[in-house]
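debug: dumping io for the single-chain case to check the tokenizer round-trip. Nothing else runs in this session.
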Amino acid sequence: MATFITVEGIDGAGKRTLVDGLRRGWEADGVRVATIAFPRYGESVHADLSAEALRGFHGDVTDSAYAMALLFALDRREAAPALRSLIAENDVVVADRYVASNAAYTAARVAERSTGAAVAATEWVRALEFDRFDLPVPDWQLFLGVPVEVAAQRAVDRAETDAGRDRDRYERDAALQARVDEAYRGLAAAQWVSPWRVLSGDPVPGLAAELLA
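debug: decoded output
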């Protein structure tokens, strides 16, 4: 049974870099590693619909934070059997984004209404994905808490050099990204669902070994 680790952070935080670095280190030590990334663009109709909506298609779908969250959640529900197989067959499984991403973005979108609305959104995501959909609970959740401005510039640079990674509505909304960062920090402080580690983005000696201890 694998240790299941999720990597979270706002767009441009460096999640893929961290996932790849952990994977290479473990593989060099003979550890069986599998990775998965959400949303599963190109694999899941729910993920593709969400991407299209964030680029102006499908009418007013993006007007509803809950509608968007449901699409992302359904992507993970569809992937659940494959994810459980990965966990059963490997020593460690790392996910680039997971349920906490949905909680943070949904809470950030409704936070302007009230603090209560943000808390309710977070609980709704937890109940939907972990209770109703019975998704695997992470053993560790890693939050890459790089400065919002640094992450934003990385996202811009990435879009300029990779035509396939143009910024969507969420990525272009600087105020939203700042609220998402705040929501993530609240989840980490509360140790939401399972243990969290907050990382600065700088290398952490011994992190890979600590996560599997």
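debug: round-trip ok. The chain has a mean pLDDT of 92.
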